[in-house]
Write a structure and sequence with these properties.
- This is Acetyltransferase GNAT family.
- It is an enzyme of class 2 (transferase).
- Pfam families: Acetyltransf_3.
- Keywords: Acyltransferase, Transferase.
- One of its GO terms (cellular component) is cytoplasm.
- The protein starts with a strand and ends with a helix.
- The protein contains six helices and eight strands.
- The protein has one domain: Gcn5-related N-acetyltransferase (GNAT) (Aminopeptidase, 3-Layer(aba) Sandwich).
- By secondary structure, the chain is of the alpha+beta class.
- Strands 1-2-3-4-5-6-8-7 form an eight-stranded mixed sheet, sandwiched between helices.
- β7 and β8 form a beta hairpin.
- α1 packs across α3 and α4 packs across α5.
- Bound molecules: coenzyme A.
- Coenzyme A binds next to α2, β5, α4 and α5.
């Protein structure tokens, strides 16, 4: 998996030495719950989660700015699609950096990587209806809205949430180039 450079950002694999940076934004009540995950309660919890979902995983990048990890982005298996050439986009960013266009730039770069380098046929993404920031990232990237999957996910609190589902095919990506 390659590093991806975008202006003043570097997308690169995470290592355990990034744990403090990841914990710093993952402990916030404003970050994880918007994506359905519980705020981290300790650096030890961050380290366990990093081992389980970030370290040595293909196509999961840390977002580095000024030598610090400020978020993550990745392409993971899509639980809604039986297609080896489809992946689902996911991301989270430290709230200190919201509203500067960072995730839109990172998502566009990862879309290009997914279609050009991984030769994927489709990339999907979902957000909770209340998550307007994520919705705007998705819209600005040019995804097609597929519909709302009602009562789709049980989050860490036990609450069942709808998700708004979007996708982009390879042909749609190529036509936007
Ligand atoms: C969603 C998230 C990744 C956005 O990152 P970001 O770098 O701030 O995104 P950008 O700056 O590229 O774009 C954000 C857009 O949302 C808009 N926005 C942000 N909050 C908003 C709100 N409450 N209502 C309406 N629009 C909102 C911004 O104005 C901007 O749109 P614009 O360029 O048209 O003005 C970030 O807020 C985050 O990490 N949230 C917590 C985790 C999360 O939600 N992950 C995604 C799960 S689906």
């Amino acid at each position: 998996m390659k590093n991806i450079k975008i202006k003043n950002l570097l997308l690169r694999p995470l290592t355990m030495s990034d744990s403090n940076d990841v914990y710093a934004y993952s402990k916030s009540k404003n970050v994880g719950p918007r994506a359905g995950w519980k705020p981290h309660e300790s650096i030890e919890e961050t380290m366990e989660i990093m081992k389980a979902i970030f370290i040595d995983k293909e196509n999961i990048w840390g977002i580095e700015k000024d030598k610090k990890i400020i978020g993550s982005i990745g392409l993971i298996d899509d639980p809604h699609r039986q297609n080896d050439q489809a992946r689902m986009l996911g991301y989270a960013l430290s709230e200190d950096y919201w509203g500067q266009g960072i995730m839109t730039a990172a998502a566009r770069a990862v879309l290009a990587y997914g279609f050009d380098t991984l030769a994927l046929s489709l990339i999907s993404v979902v957000h909770y209806p209340s998550n307007r920031g994520s919705q705007r990232v998705i819209e600005k990237c040019g995804f097609l809205y597929e519909g709302t999957i009602r009562q789709a996910e049980k989050i860490y609190t036990g609450e069942i949430r709808d998700v708004k589902a979007y996708s982009m095919t390879r042909a749609e990506f190529m036509s936007k180039k």
